[in-house]
């Protein structure tokens, strides 16, 4: 089922999420719905707060980008109760966008390497290291479960330049090709 994506200004996007109970009813269906919602919106990652849930649950699929980088082929992951335990490596600023902040793309500084602990969709524990674009995407989605949006990480000058777009989102003035839940709209 395709779910509405919560947009900038929705309070859920600012909450630090709690672990999802491992006996959560319909967890498999929720994960499936998150992937379907993400694909419908042409995203490569989605976090539970973006669909209105205050849980540490992330889905990522970089396979659609395999033409740009063959190492993305088959990179489809579920991160349940994820915790980044290390960030290091070179910091780089690369342009990012977000399904919860449509029509805004900005350069965001992030570390090139992370270590993350999580459970997969089969509730198997992992402690893994990711680098490069994989680390960037995971950090972006991880920020969502920590109540952080990518626009929080850009320079003050850039924030001023996108202020009118963000204010319009707060008023519900936004056009998306996917189902959304905006603040100013009922």
Characterization of this structure:
The protein starts with a strand and ends in a 5-residue tail after the last strand. The chain is an alpha+beta fold and 186 residues long. It has helices at 27-40, 132-145, 156-170, and strands at 5-6, 45-47, 57-61, 76-98, 101-119, 125-131, 180-181. It has a five-stranded antiparallel β-sheet with strand order 2-3-4-5-6, with helices on both faces. Strands 1-7 form a two-stranded parallel sheet. It has one domain: Alpha-Beta Complex (Peptide Deformylase), CATH 3.90.45. The longest helix is centred in the C-terminal third of the chain and has 15 residues, at 156-170. It is 23% helix and 33% strand.
What's the topology here?
Elements: E1 5-6, H1 27-40, E2 45-47, E3 57-61, E4 76-98, E5 101-119, E6 125-131, H2 132-145, H3 156-170, E7 180-181
Parallel strand pairs: 1-7
Antiparallel strand pairs: 2-3, 3-4, 4-5, 5-6
């Amino acid at each position: 089922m395709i779910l509405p994506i919560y947009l900038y200004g929705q309070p859920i996007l600012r909450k630090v999420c709690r672990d999802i109970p491992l006996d959560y009813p319909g967890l498999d269906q929720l994960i499936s719905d998150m992937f379907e919602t993400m694909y419908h919106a042409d995203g490569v990652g989605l976090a539970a707060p973006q669909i209105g849930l205050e849980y540490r649950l992330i889905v990522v699929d970089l396979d659609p980008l395999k033409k740009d980088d063959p190492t993305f082929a088959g990179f489809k992951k579920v991160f349940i109760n994820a915790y980044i335990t290390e960030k290091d490596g070179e910091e780089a600023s690369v342009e990012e966008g977000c399904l919860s902040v449509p029509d805004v793309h900005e350069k965001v500084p992030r570390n090139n390497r992370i270590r993350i602990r999580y459970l997969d969709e089969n509730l198997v524990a992992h402690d893994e290291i990711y680098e490069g674009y994989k680390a960037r995407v995971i950090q972006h989605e991880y920020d969502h479960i920590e109540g952080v949006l990518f626009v929080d990480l850009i320079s003050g000058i850039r924030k001023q330049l996108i202020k009118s777009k963000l204010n319009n989102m707060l008023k519900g003035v936004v056009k998306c090709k996917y189902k959304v839940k905006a603040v100013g709209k009922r």
